[in-house]
Design brief:
Elements: H1 4-21, H2 23-54, H3 68-96, H4 104-130
Helix pairs in contact: 1-2, 2-3, 2-4
Amino acid sequence: TRLLPLWRACGFALGFAPAMVGERALFATVEAVETFVEEHYDEQLAYLRDEADRRPAEGDGRSARGSVDGVAELVRVIAACRDDEVSHKLDAASRGSPSEAQSRLVAGMLHAWARMIDTGSRLAVVASRAV
């Protein structure tokens, strides 16, 4: 995307700002980002699996590039990437889980922050596809 320089700056800010606030904010950010990434990967995997169902098997006269085997390999790679992101999400969730002493206000602020990240991420995908 032509917006990559902007996304890099946003990514830096998204890591830097919560790190300045504190550990819980940082882990809440990682969890929110990885939750979005997991969903995004799942959408891509569903598309690719549907695509594989529509493609003929290798050896029917089409090139390997258009084969089910080629798509299946891409699915395996993307699924492995998604699984790696899920492990980051689970790690952040376990490290940043609120203590019993944490106030409802702090928990509410972290939830609102996570929603902002989700919304911003979704808007970034839409913008990237449009540009």
